[in-house]
Design brief:
Blueprint lengths: L2 E2 L4 H11 L16 H10 L14 H18 L4 H13 L3 E7 L5 E7 L5 H20 L4 E3 L8 E3 L12 H4 L2 H16 L1
Antiparallel strand pairs: 1-3, 2-3, 4-5
Helix pairs in contact: 1-5, 3-4, 3-5, 4-5
The structure holds zinc ion.
């Protein structure tokens, strides 16, 4: 998988999807990374094809490591300031052996790529992919694109890579659903009655 420093949006979108699989985000659903197959589906749905999976399937240890990465990425998305965001990302990237290299694309333009120094585990490859995407988003779109979900029933966060930058929800089809919000209000009201 090529990690290109100029291209942040796919990695930022994947970072959002990954952190929002956590059981602390959509509490009723539980951990949406419930097993190796769920992780594989998340990668496929995001069109992410890591080199680590060319010859191997996702296994239990990959899953554990990606769950740990998910916590590290959540901490980055919750960073209270741009400099904290950069520091936390640098810390995550520093554990992945890699270097930055200028690479020519199929005989045409040149691009800065993050190139692994050796074969990486799935989690390390994803850390590289996500880390540079988050730095690229900060550099290009600014710190205000890292936001908590507006839904009162959701603990999610997201990176807004949309053109207008007016996204409000971490999982628009779930958190932006008025019925969910109405149900939550109703529940709160009922609790208040007793
Ligand atoms: Zn949400």
């Amino acid at each position: 998988m090529q990690v290109t420093l100029d291209d942040y949006s796919q990695g930022a979108i994947f970072a959002t999807e990954l952190v929002n699989t956590s059981p602390r985000v959509w509490v009723i659903a539980g951990d949406m990374l419930s097993g190796p197959q769920a992780l594989k589906t998340l990668l496929d749905n995001n069109n992410v094809h890591p080199d680590a999976l060319v010859h191997d399937l996702v296994d239990g240890s990959d899953l554990e490591q990606v769950r740990a990465l998910r916590e590290a990425v959540r901490e980055i998305l919750d960073a209270p300031s741009p400099s904290d965001l950069v520091d936390l990302t640098r810390r995550a990237l520093s554990t992945v052996p890699h270097h930055v290299e200028l690479v020519q694309q199929e005989g045409r333009s040149w691009r800065w790529n993050a190139v692994p120094d050796n074969a990486l585990s799935l989690a390390d490859e994803l850390a590289l992919f996500i880390g540079y995407a988050l730095l690229g988003t900060l550099r290009t779109l600014g710190f205000e694109r890292f936001r908590p979900c507006s839904s009162p029933t959701c603990n999610g966060v997201f990176v807004d890579t949309s053109r207008g930058g007016r996204r409000r929800y971490c999982m628009p089809e779930l958190c932006g659903n008025r019925i969910n919000v109405a149900n939550h209000r109703q529940r709160k009201q009922n609790l208040g009655d007793h």
